[in-house]
Design a protein that fits this description.
Number of strands of chain B: 34
Strand content of chain C: 15-25%
Oligomer: heterotrimer
Largest interface: B-C, 56 and 46 residues
Strand content of chain B: 15-25%
Helix content of chain C: 25-40%
Radius of gyration of chain B: 27 Å
Number of helices of chain B: 23
Chains: A mainly alpha (274), B alpha+beta (803), C alpha+beta (335)
Number of strands of chain C: 12
Distance between the termini of chain C: 56 Å
CATH architecture of the domain at 12-61 in chain C: 2-Layer Sandwich
Shape of chain C: globular
Strand order of the largest sheet of chain C: 4-5-8-6-7
């Protein structure tokens, strides 16, 4: 399998063109393997977390519905999700043989994604605590500890997490990385096509620089394929459904809060919606 | 003259029509290899490394040739192969293999490491402060006079940004490198009642001969026998030897047929060494076929002009002053003569009282240029003729009359030296045109509307050089009584190789059937001959053959006197005999005269030769000595000054004002080319040249991508030479027929001027149909006409080359 | 970008005797190239820009040739030479614009060799793409014909999507205007595709110009009687009279009632990556008198929304005027 498609430019020089579309299939396969792998170890994980439920924290002062995602955050999430799905569908389906006019939808969705993420960045840094999502060495330690604990190794279950457990933070970081890769390269790629926003100039960069831009965009894209698969998979798992629901309704129940979070690390506030 | 000047069947005609004529590509030999070249993908680069190991390992790949195998003829000399390609498509190396396909596949396996270098496509861009040099050492090419004589050098020339900023949409005119003038220009313009000035552009155009520059070489007993596609033959031998580094005595050039050259194959082609040296290297026959695609880049091209022209007229239409500035698109190699021939032609065509020319020849990374039919002349004529029409309209003068007013006539003067030409019968030509065209009626059709179509009438007056003198003639009267005329000219389709030999029949009082023309093979003892270019063959060769035939005649008379008594002058030569005057049956036959000449030896049979002939003629005559009575002489007739021929073209067209589509309805060409040598062939020259001019006027151009330096007009359908479907419904011609008084048979060459006449007449007719609207760039394509009609800006800028 | 040109690479040549045989070969060989008259094909091969391992020559399939009356219309085999169409009495009488369109192609020699099917499915003539440049259409990631320095005199003013190449066919607009059906056969059977849907633009698939996938063949073209004998108009504007692709061409058919246009079809070629049917113009024409004023407003409407490139602005007035002429001609031809 080749990773990058190469072409000869008009002067006969080898230049990178884009990633090999095989990588898309690879991302699907890796995603599938991940899902299957997780399904295999899922019973153990469930057993381990069931133990955790034996020791809920104190319910004192905890409202019945604990706010997990504000309305604004939820709207952002779903706008971004829709944009991302449109981008993946318009980006990859034509490359695997399903032909339809995809370019406009792709860049419009791309702009929506960028706008929503810019909004999210501003909103999150002003109204939310960056510490909630920032991954620290301690998080990683706890994650490893948790994994070992879940896998039945005689390790104590780590402290419960704050608002976001380490795996969520890791997912977010990966999404940030791939997201920025596709967004920044995507903005440049808009110079290659006709849009009302930029004057088309395919010669903005040298052809090999362009090639690497396309490669980066493609790598980000296949990365997002994998991340999307894993994200959707977890979202539909029964044991994680309370989290998914919280992204719809905004709150989690007191029980879930106490079972899964450490109030010291994440202080509960009352849900707006009753 | 009983024979000269009449239609006849040239000796090559049957072979051409039946397909028996063999052009270079038609030759085959046992064990023949095929060569292919690897062409540069970049417009300017340096080859850092060639790795051909994989190619050479292929079974059937026999040899590789690189620039290292070729003699170094100095930095400005183009070679068949190069390590510093100066245009996209320039050959880097050649491979010989047992099949052409294999050669191509081998070439694709060769790895070349190039270092791309800055490149220049557009002369004006190159002159800008930020411009690039087409050659590492500079961007212009200049002829310099030094103490050691003339030399051509490359220089770097940049103009300040101010020059460009101040020019607006006029031609920027910074420091020039060429200049000449005569008369008082300022006074001339001061005297003028009407002054017109214009910035104009003329494209570069590939020659597109039907036969590409294919070569085939064999090696026999150490000698290389080269079948080439060449305009000249005697004069191809030297360059072929020099370019390939083969000793002249070990090289035979054969070129009996040539499918056209138009100036692109004057002394052969620079790619000849590829077949020759690969044959030498492998000791096997090698065919190097050139495809149409390759022909468009390794073939030659006419230089483009970016021009500013200013003309002053008196009320009567006479030209008081002519000022011009030309930026020539020189291509990457040797300096092109168009730059000086353009203004020289104008100086003759319009006889201005005062004139100045300034110019610069800019190197570009585009295919090499060479003379193309009326080099410089066609470009300039096509630019000035429409201006003449506008002046005529402005001054209320008839368009034919304003040309007559300024026409060169008789011993007219030309160029800055004001040299007197040998003859001009232009007034007679204009008179004939006026009558033949029914001009007074025709001109009323100008501007007439018929539905969406409007009629345009245009004139194109085109002078160009038509002769040269001082070459040698060589013929042998053998004991079969036939006259074998050896001629060093080539056969590029004009019939001049045999037309000129007909002089011998007239001088010696013979029938054409008694003449055997020997041509096309440097192994067949050819005399020193003009290059077959610049329309010089007719003039130079009729003179040289006339000299040789006259020499033979004198020798026959002298021989008869010696053998039969009496004085030489009492004998005449006719009807196949040298006989006493008044007794055509007396004396002796040429067959027996030939035997007697051999018996007597000395000058009669070529054992003694004139001192003044060229060493090539001496060698050939020496080889022929003893075969019969030799006529051998140098043309020392007076030439009466530079020789020029003239054509006046008239085009009638219809333009559809809704689509910009142009149809030619009529084209007539009238010429002053001295005595008509071969009427059918003259018609072909006048019309064929005219049609080629239509191509320059309407269709043919290069389009280059400016970012990559790569052109697109690689095939006929993108290069758009005119076809038979594009010629006018009616075409006519006429000739004044007045002999040039300084040349024995009075014939002048006529290859060149028809193209400028056709081009200028068509461009003028377009302007006429557009009601005087000026299209400043050639070729004038459909969109240019439509944009002018719609008062839209043109879609490409006038001064952007190759767009 | 030479390096080497004009040397056809080797390939395996198959010459099936019938359509099924051809389809079988196409199914078997993924990169098989279909060869009809060869006028599009050999240019590609000579330039070594397309190098299939397998070529399926349809030349021996006689069932693909011929012009047949079918129902109340005609069926033309895809392999029918253009010169046969140009000279066919019934086609000339009933569908004159198709005969004229066929006659407007290239040269007499090319029309003897070139087929209707080939003229329909031929690839674009964008000189960058045909020159072997690695552009979008060739599978790359750039359009060289639409950059700030590109030379694009012959490119599109409508329908660009990254690629700005045009459909070069003369017969295609005529077939679109005649509501022709393209008969497409694959191993799973035969389908009819309306001409207007047969051609696709780069927004849908940037590497193909028609709906044909590599395993299908265009076997015939069916022309319904819808416009048989109706007033028709075809005009092509090109540079030379020989072997030149259209700068713009127009094909139009009119059903008239006296001076009134009852129904019209107008299609324009070489302005978009596909033959462009002008439905808005057709709608506007319905119920109007065929005259110069109607033609003028039709022309103006036709070029609405056009986006010229750097060097092809002339295509706007040209297309406008050609549409105008088509409509005006419907007036002049009225009895």
């Amino acid at each position: 399998m080749e990773f990058i498609q190469w072409a000869q430019n008009p002067w006969g020089q080898e230049v990178p063109l884009r990633i090999s579309w095989d990588l898309f299939w690879a991302a699907l396969i890796v995603g599938a393997v991940f899902v299957v792998g997780h399904l295999v170890i899922r019973p153990r994980l469930l057993k381990a977390s069931a133990k955790g439920e034996d020791s809920p924290g104190s319910a004192e002062g905890v409202p019945e519905k604990v706010v997990r995602h504000s309305m604004v955050s939820r709207v952002f999430h779903w706008v971004m999700a829709v944009a991302m799905l449109v981008l993946l569908v318009t980006g990859f389906l034509p490359q695997v043989g399903i032909q339809f006019p995809w370019v406009t939808a792709h860049w419009v969705a791309g702009l929506v994604l960028i706008a929503s993420i810019v909004f999210h960045m501003v909103h999150a840094s002003v109204f939310q605590s960056l510490r909630n999502i920032w991954i620290s060495p301690g998080d990683l330690r706890e994650f490893i500890q948790e994994m070992r604990h879940s896998m039945g190794q005689s390790v104590e279950s780590p402290r419960k997490p704050g608002k976001y457990p380490a795996d969520h933070k890791m997912f977010h970081h990966a999404a940030v990385l791939t997201g920025f890769a596709v967004m920044i390269t995507g903005v440049f790629m808009m110079f290659r096509i006709d849009t009302p926003l930029f004057t088309r100039d395919p010669y903005l960069m040298s052809d090999s620089s362009w090639g690497w831009v396309y490669v980066l965009h493609g790598l980000g894209g296949v990365g997002l394929v994998f991340l999307t698969i894993s994200h959707v998979y977890f979202a539909i798992l029964p044991e994680k459904r309370w989290i998914t629901m919280s992204m719809i309704f905004g709150w989690i129940s007191r029980d879930k809060y106490l079972q899964n979070h450490d109030p010291e690390r994440w202080q509960a506030t009352e849900g707006a919606e009753k | 003259m009983a024979i000269f000047g009449k239609d006849y069947t040239p000796p090559d005609l049957h072979a051409k029509i039946t397909g028996r004529a063999k052009y270079a590509e038609d030759f085959r030999a046992d064990g023949m290899l095929f060569a292919k070249v690897l062409a540069s993908p970049m417009p300017h680069a340096r080859v850092r490394n060639i790795d051909a190991s994989e190619a050479l390992a292929m079974e059937g790949v026999e040899a590789i040739l690189t620039a290292d195998d070729l003699p170094d003829l100095g930095p400005l000399s183009e070679r068949a192969l190069t390590m510093e390609p100066l245009y996209e498509g320039e050959p880097i190396l050649a491979v010989a293999a047992t099949s052409e396909l294999l050669a191509a596949e081998a070439i694709e396996k060769i790895k070349i490491d190039y270092e791309p270098l800055p490149f220049a496509l557009d002369p004006l861009e190159s002159l800008k402060p930020s411009g690039s040099n087409a050659r590492v050492d500079g961007n212009t090419i200049v002829n310099e006079r030094t103490e050691e004589g003339r030399r051509t050098v490359v220089k770097e020339l940049r103009w300040s940004q101010d020059v460009f900023d101040e020019a607006g949409d006029h031609l920027p005119m910074g420091e020039h490198q060429d200049e000449w003038s005569y008369g008082d220009l300022e006074a001339g313009f001061a005297e003028a009642d009407y002054v017109i000035e214009e910035t104009l552009a003329h494209q570069s155009v590939t020659h597109h001969p039907m036969e590409p520059r294919t070569c085939m070489a064999t090696v026999q007993n150490g000698k290389v026998i080269l079948h080439a596609s060449t305009q000249s033959v005697a004069r191809t031998h030297g360059p072929a030897a020099a370019w390939s580094g083969i000793d002249g005595k070990d090289l035979v050039v054969i070129g009996e047929y040539c499918g056209g050259g138009f100036g692109s194959k004057i002394v052969g082609t620079v790619n000849m060494p590829i077949a020759a040296l690969l044959a030498k290297k492998t000791n096997r026959p090698v065919m190097h076929r050139i495809t149409r695609y390759e022909e468009t880049y390794i073939g030659r091209a006419r230089p483009g002009f970016q021009t500013w022209i200013k003309v002053g007229f008196r009320k009567d239409g006479s030209i008081t002053a002519l000022d011009m500035y030309i930026i020539q698109d020189n291509g990457p190699y040797g300096r092109q003569g168009d730059l000086s021939m353009g203004p020289t032609t104008a100086s003759l065509a319009y006889q201005p009282q005062a004139m100045r020319f300034r110019g610069v020849s800019v190197l570009t990374n585009t295919p090499p240029r060479s003379a193309q039919r009326a080099p410089g002349g066609a470009q300039i004529i096509a630019m000035i003729e429409p201006m003449m029409d506008r002046a005529a309209a402005e001054l209320g003068l008839d368009r034919l009359e304003i040309r007559r007013t300024n026409a060169p006539q008789g011993k007219a003067k030309v160029g800055p030296q004001r040299a007197e030409i040998s003859s001009a019968f232009v007034h007679e030509m204009i008179d004939q045109a006026k009558e033949k065209l029914n001009w007074d009626e025709l001109k009323t059709r100008s501007g007439q509307r018929n539905g969406s179509k409007v009629t345009g009438i245009g004139l194109g007056f085109s002078p160009f050089i038509g002769g040269v003198s001082g070459f040698d003639g060589l013929l042998v009267i053998k004991d079969d009584g036939k006259v074998h005329v050896h001629t060093g000219v080539g056969n590029l389709g004009t019939h001049s190789f045999s037309d000129t030999a007909r002089v011998a029949a007239d001088v010696l009082g013979l029938e054409w059937e008694d003449i055997n023309v020997i041509w096309g093979n440097t192994g067949k003892h050819l005399p020193w001959t003009t290059v077959q270019a610049g329309s010089m063959t007719t003039h130079a060769t009729t003179r040289a053959i006339h000299a040789a035939a006259s020499d033979a005649k004198a020798k026959l008379q002298e021989l008869a006197a010696a053998e039969l008594g009496g004085s030489a002058s009492s004998y005449d030569v006719s009807g196949g005999r040298v006989h006493p005057r008044g007794n055509r049956r007396g004396g002796m036959s040429l067959a027996s005269a030939a035997q007697k000449a051999v018996a007597r030896g000395g000058k009669f049979s070529g054992e003694e030769l004139p001192e003044n002939i060229h060493r090539m003629t001496t060698a050939s005559a020496t080889a022929l000595a003893g075969q019969g009575l030799l006529g051998v002489a140098k043309d020392e007739y007076d030439n009466g000054g530079p020789l020029w021929s003239f054509v006046l073209g008239c085009a009638e067209i219809e333009i559809d004002v809704e689509t910009g589509v142009l149809e030619m309805t009529n084209y007539t060409a009238i010429t002053d080319c001295g005595t008509v040598m071969n009427p059918r062939s003259l018609a072909a020259q006048l019309h064929g040249g005219g049609i080629q001019g239509f191509g320059l006027a309407r269709y043919q151009k290069w389009i280059y991508d400016p970012s990559w330096g790569i052109p697109f007009a690689h095939r006929f359908y993108t290069a758009r030479p005119p076809t038979i479907l594009d010629v006018p419904r009616e075409m006519a011609w006429g000739a004044v027929g007045e002999p040039d008084p300084y040349t024995p048979v009075g014939a002048k060459g006529i290859g060149e001027p028809p193209i400028g006449a056709g081009q200028a007449a068509l461009v003028s007719a377009i302007q006429d149909a557009l009601g005087g609207k000026v299209i400043r760039k050639m070729p004038v394509m459909v969109e240019n006409i439509l944009n002018a009609l719609e008062d839209r800006p043109q879609d490409t800028e006038t001064l952007t080359a190759h767009s | 970008m030479p390096v080497i040109n004009d040397m056809i690479p080797e390939f395996d040549l198959f010459q099936p005797a019938d359509v099924d045989g051809a389809l079988e070969l196409l199914a078997k060989h993924d990169d098989a190239w279909v060869l009809a008259g060869g006028l599009d094909t050999f240019d590609w091969f000579k330039d070594r820009a397309k190098r299939p391992d397998v070529v399926v020559d349809l030349g021996a399939i006689d069932q693909l040739r011929g012009i047949r009356e079918q129902g109340d219309g005609y069926e033309i085999g895809a392999l029918t030479p253009l010169s046969d169409i140009e000279n066919h009495e019934a086609i000339k009488a009933k569908f004159p614009m198709l005969a004229q369109a066929a006659q407007a192609v290239a040269t007499p020699q090319v029309r003897n060799q070139g087929t209707l099917g080939g003229n329909i499915v031929q690839d674009t003539r964008c000189w960058y793409y045909r020159g072997g440049w690695p552009c979008y259409r060739a599978g790359g990631n750039i359009c060289y014909a639409d950059t700030p320095t590109s030379m694009n005199r012959e490119h599109c003013i409508f329908g660009a999507s990254r690629c700005v190449a045009v459909s070069p066919s003369d017969s295609a607009p005529a077939l679109v205007a005649l509501d022709a059906m393209m008969v497409v056969r694959s191993r799973s059977g035969e389908r009819e595709v309306p001409a207007a849907d047969f051609f696709i633009g780069p927004s849908t698939d940037i590497t193909r110009m028609t709906v044909l996938n590599g395993r299908e063949l265009l076997v015939a073209i069916r022309i319904p009687s819808t416009f048989a004998g109706a007033h028709q108009y075809f005009e092509k504007v090109r540079d030379r009279n020989a072997w030149d692709f259209p700068l713009v061409n127009v094909a139009a058919a009119f059903k008239r009632n006296g001076a009134t246009i009852e129904d019209a079809r107008v299609a324009v070629g070489a302005v978009a990556p596909y033959p462009m049917r002008l439905e808005a113009v057709e709608a506007q024409l319905r119920g109007k008198n065929a005259d110069e004023a109607t033609g003028k407003s039709a022309g103006e409407l036709a070029i609405k929304g056009a986006k010229p490139l750097r060097h092809n602005g002339y295509k706007l007035p040209l297309m406008r005027n050609l549409v105008m002429r088509a409509v005006r001609d419907a007036q002049s031809a009225q009895a």
